[in-house]
Amino acid sequence: MKKIVIASDSFKGSVSSADVAQSAREGILRVFPECEVICLTVSDGGEGLYETLLQQLKGKQIICSAHNSQMETINAGYILSEDGKTAVIETAAANGLALIPKEKRNPMEATTFGTGELIKNAIRRGCRNILLGIGGSATNDAGTGMLQALGIRFRDENGTILGYGGKILTRIASIDESGVLPELKDCRFTIICDVNSPLFGPNGAAYVYAPQKGADREQVRFLDKGLRNFSHIIKQEKGINISKVSGAGAAGGMGAACLAFFHAQLKPGIETVLEIIGFDKLIVEADLIITGEGKLDRQTIMGKTASGILAAARKHHIPVIALGGCVENTKELIDAGFLATFSILPYPVTLEQAMQKDFTLCNIANTTEQIMRIIKNQTQ
């Protein structure tokens, strides 16, 4: 093996994209010490977007006060470009799932208000171009919290202003934009998302993603009903049909809000990131690409990082191997084009142990080493 590219998403809640790459590199060099190994930090628009683009844009880090999904005050950051005209903001920075302990997750209450605060901060600094990554959220509020932070109010049938969280969606009867931040109309939004799911229905935001955010079956049905109502109100008041738009269900429906209120351009997250970092040039003459994420399953091929890496690699006829802490739906992943998929877990462990950083990094290195040994044996 002369050249291998490592471009993996983070293993959410455990290790970063950069950590995965460095550990996989270690495993490769144990077997192929002369191999050129290119380690890339990538993201599909969720957790890790910030780190991925900070150097590429030669920007600076802006830290400001914001609220997490439980309306607790935290410090969150975003990237301000060198010329001060563009801000890169990720929902995960303020309203990410990883910020909330598992036992406290509740999409009925969770809000995207903090993301709106980051947008507002950037606009007041003079930014008019907003690149917003909307993956990795703890929310299912259809972006209403974000819009509330920007001055938009949602009222029930009695005209009462509603509060925050997914629980308000079924009660929205009208939208009040009289207090919206004036500068918002001059802003250009590009939204990058990590999934291509519709807003509601069996493949929508609630049914597919709300359970991992803490919702039980009854809450999932309630949230899906709310997303349907939100879509109806948007069509009624703004004349925009977001019911079947691919990506509208990203980040618990935030994709829909961005389309309806920002007239945003919605782009697949990983494709946008790969374009920015010049991925096509970096993989020229590579013998293999290694990618992965914490859990490999059918969602992996619905616009996630690994699927974007695979699509780019196939244009150059480069094989791709995917690593995951957990691997499901193997046949579907192989049918999608992966050469092989591997779980990094060497034996049954508790979820708590599986998520430990040192344990994960060691397993990534060891698994990669074993793969390299197989390859070396076959090529001798």
TrEMBL record:
Signal peptide: none annotated. GO terms for molecular function: glycerate kinase activity. Transmembrane segments: none annotated. It comes from the Bacteria. SUPFAM superfamilies: Glycerate kinase I. One of its GO terms (biological process) is organic acid phosphorylation. Pfam families: Gly_kinase (PF02595). This is Glycerate kinase. The lineage of its organism: Bacteria, Pseudomonadati, Bacteroidota, Bacteroidia, Bacteroidales.
